[in-house]
Amino acid sequence: MTTAPEIDSNEMDVARPQGGYLLPRNSLMLEFRGWIKDILLAVVISLLMVVFLYQPVKVEGTSMQPELLDQERIFVNKFVYHFEGIQRSDIVVFWYPKDPSKSFIKRVVGVPGDTVQIKDGQVFINGQLFQERYVPSGYQDLDSYPAIRVKEGYYYVLGDHRNASNDSRSWGLVPRKYIYGKAVFRYWPVEKAGFLE
Q1: What is the pLDDT of residue 89?
Q2: What residues contact 128, with CB distance under 8 A and at least 6 apart?
Q3: 106 is catalytic
Q4: Quick one: which of 25, 35, 137, 171 could link to 13 by a disulfide (CB 3.0–4.6 Å)?
Q5: pLDDT < 50 regions, the chain
Q6: Active site includes 78?
Q7: What is the pLDDT of residues 22-44, one digit of tens each?
C-alpha cells in the first residue's frame, strides 16, 4: 500500500479563505498583482484620455446662459476637430483673439464663406433667418450689426445670452487655430449632467 508523501509545513505557506479550501499564498499574491496591474492600466488610460482627448473646464461668466451657467463644469473634446469640421451651433472653447492667454466659450454661428448680419437681435446667415432655439426671448437683445463675411479659416461666434456676451459682435472673427475644442458634456452639477446641445 502506497502512502501519500508527507508535506513539510515549511515548504508551502497557505491561506485559508472563507470558503474553507486552501490557496497557496503565492497564488493570492499573483492575483493581487494582476488586480493592481489592471487598476494602474485603467488609471493610465484615463489620464491619457484627459490629457489628449478630453479636458475638464470650469465655465466662468454668464454669456452662455441658459445652456451653461457660471461655475458649471464641462468636458471639452480636444480631438474631434481633427476628424470633422467645425459646424454651425457647435459650442467651442478658444483662445480670446485680443488676449490669447484667456480662454472663452461661445457658440459658432458663422462658418467660412457665410455672411452674418444681425437685425433687431435676429441673426441672418446668407440672407436667411437663422433659427436659434437655444436663445430664449429673455436672453436676446434688439441690437443690429452690419453684415460681415466670414473669411476662410475664421469663425463668427456668439454667446447664447446675447445681452450679456462679449463676442464676435464686439471684437470680430475667431481664427481656426485659436479654437482648441468642442464642449460636449456637463459633469457638474451632477443633477444636470449630460451632453450639451
Answers
A1: 96
A2: none
A3: yes
A4: 25
A5: 7, 9-12, 14
A6: no
A7: 556 677 778 888 889 889 888 88
